[in-house]
Structures are given as C-alpha cells and as structure tokens.
Amino acid sequence: MPWRNELCSQHADRKAASLWRELRTLESSPGRTVTIAGKSFLNFCSNNYLSLANHRQLVAAANAATEKYGTGATASHLIIGHNTVHQQLESRIAEFVGAEKSILFSTGYMANSAVPTTFLGRNDLIVQDRLNHASMIDGARLSTAKLQRYPHCDSVAAEQILTKRDLGRKMLTTDGVFSMDGSIAPLADLKTICDRHHAMLVVDDAHGFGVVGDTGQGCLSSCGLGPRGNTLMLGTLSKAAASFGAFVAGDAIYIDTLVQHARPFIYTTALPTSAAAAALKAIELFEAETWRRAKLVDNIAQFRKLAVAAGVPLTESTTPIQPISVGDSQSALQLANHLQQNGIMAIAIRPPTVPSGQSRVRITLMTDHTREDIENLIAVLKSAP
Ligand SMILES: Cc1ncc(COP(=O)(O)O)c(C=O)c1O
C-alpha cells in the first residue's frame, strides 16, 4: 500500500514538530491522585471539577440503575432506548437550568453537530468565537451554513459579521467557559447582539455546567440569562457531573424540532442508564453540596495567589481551567514532562487544539485538591528549567 509510506512520513513529521499525541492508560479513577504505569501522580488535568467521579452516591445510583435497567440501552431514544431515568434526567436538567425542555445526546460532540445541522442549511450563517471547541466548528461545517469566526470574545466583531451578511437564518455559537483558556464569553453582549439581528444564540457550557453560578447552573444564569427565547444551552454530563452524555436545553419548539430532525439524536443508541442515573445524582449534589463549589473557588484563588508570588505566568481566567502558556509545542511538552517527573499529571496542549504558537500546559483545579497539593504544584512549576 502506498499509503503506508505516506503515513510513516506524516508520523515522523509530527514527532519532529513535537506534535505527536500519546495515550496514557489510567489504572485508577480520575480523582485527586491517579495511577499510571504503576506510578501515582497528583491529578491536575481532569475535568472532574467537583470531585464527584467517585462520590459514593453517584456510584450507588449508577449501580442501582444497572441492576434495574441493564448495562446498555440497546436502542435509540426513538425506538425503545429511552427509559424513565432518561426522562427524569431531561426534566431535571430543564428545571435546573430554567428551560422549558431539554433533550439528551450521547456526547457533547454529537450535540454540537445536532444543533447547526438541524436548524441551518447552505443559505444560512453561523458565527463563532475563534476559540470555540472543535466540536462546534465540525458541527458548523457539517451544516453547510456559511461559517465565519470572530476574534476571541470580541462581540463588536461578532456584530459586524451579523450586520454585513444578510443570509437566511443566523446563529451565533460560543463556549460559555472556553475549554483551553478558561475565559468566559461576554454572554450579555452576545445576547443583545443576537436579539438585534434575529439570530439564535447557542452557548456550549460544557465547562460551566455545575461550576459557574450559585448552584452551578452555568454561565447564562450567572449573567441573569437562561436558555429561553432565542437562546439554547448545551452542556455535557461528562465533566463536573462526572458521568457521560450531554444535553441541549431551550424552548419546547426547538427541543421538539431536535427530536424530530437531529440525526446525531435519531441514529444512535441512547446513553446507558447508569450514566443518566449518575448525572441525575450529580445535579442533586450541585444543589445539596454547595461547599464543593466554594472549595473549588478557594482552590482557584489559592493557586492564582501562589502562582503570582512565584512568578508563574497566568492568564485572566477565574475558572478551574488555568493555562500556563509557553508558546511552542516543544516547550509545552518539556514543561509537562517536568511536572510528570515530579509527580504531577498535567498535559501539554498543542496545535491544532490551540492556535500555532500558543501551546500551553492546561492546569485544572478540583474540589478535592488540598492546600499542600497546590503548594506542591506551584513549587514544581517554579523549579521548571
Ligand atoms: C466546550 C466543549 N464542548 C463539547 C465537548 C465535547 O463533549 P463530550 O466529551 O461529551 O463529547 C467538550 C469536551 O469534551 C468541550 O470541552
């Protein structure tokens, strides 16, 4: 096969450019510490923000659901995969985020494909923040709508695009909390702009759900907005909720349209009931155990204070995502290796996940980190060559 040679040389190029990606095989849960290849590390890279992934109530809920409903849903939602727990979860999510209705998806990636492909076609416009998650960009491409991107969090530039382009339907999509930067979208401004231009605003709050706002309703709620009217909220159940799957919440007219037409909903198996049951329990704990968010906020503040004192370069992020920017891919890999050699697991994030020249080590904080863990992290960052 001539492909083989081509692929071999592509791999060699990727390695030479410090862009080769490697799987790490975890031998533990993604808790405060993780075990990899028999070695224990402090975990500063998972999205288990509220440390719920091995909460005994989530584990018990997942186990009980498996006992009752079996291991897999074995059919799509519209065939016979949709059961009582899925139904309860959809209602609970809608109530929690203040929407009329919600719909579950098997992953956030699929939800981000579903929204633009359901509502837009080739005569329409989709406007996106330049740093949006890849799944939103892929969804936009799949929709065949005209995709235009604006500089990060620049609502003036976003409006200029909406003003200039007079295509059919218009949609503006943005991360709530940006996955690799930790910054928060200017949602109040974006909502005003969308109202002015009769555009739909879609907020992917994968990293805000459970984390941002008084009880974790997310970024929309924290600026007095919600998934109502021309606004849809998308969230994943795989990060703070420590489960699996995703949702889109909004007015019934939009959610019903997704049920009818969203191919990533219709043509796939419903998520396992154990995952839905764990997510349901997680939402209960978002409200019942508010100390988890308070502790997370303290950890973020402690990290930032110590980092500034140690001369570790920070961004403006106030969220658990705290990137340490280093620039080129090789330097990012070197910093991640240094951390790992000193017992800290944090990963180098390189192109195409982030723009060229903006490689970084993405630190994520979680509730279970102790003061000593954070001091240890800062000491190792400070000692980096
Ligand atoms: C902002 C954002 N949206 C969507 C996704 C995809 O969600 P999922 O992992 O459920 O496919 C991710 C990360 O996984 C993300 O960071």
CATH architecture of the largest domain: 3-Layer(aba) Sandwich
Count up the domains.
Answer: 2
CATH topology of the largest domain: Aspartate Aminotransferase, domain 2
Distinct small molecules bound, one entry per kind? pyridoxal-5'-phosphate
DSSP strand tally: 13
Number of helices: 15
In the CATH hierarchy, what is the superfamily of the largest domain? Type I PLP-dependent aspartate aminotransferase-like (Major domain)
The run of helices and strands is HEEHHHEHEHEHEHEHEEHHHHEHEEEH
CATH class of the largest domain: Alpha Beta
Low-confidence stretches: none
Tell me the strand order in the biggest sheet: 3-9-8-7-6-4-5
Principal-axis shape:
globular
Distance between the termini: 44 Å
Helix- and strand-based class? alpha/beta
Please indicate the percent range of residues in DSSP E strands (runs of 2 or more).
15-25%
Helix content: 40-55%
Major β-sheet, in short? Answer: 7 strands, mixed
Radius of gyration: 21 Å
Instruction: Output mean pLDDT.
Output: 97
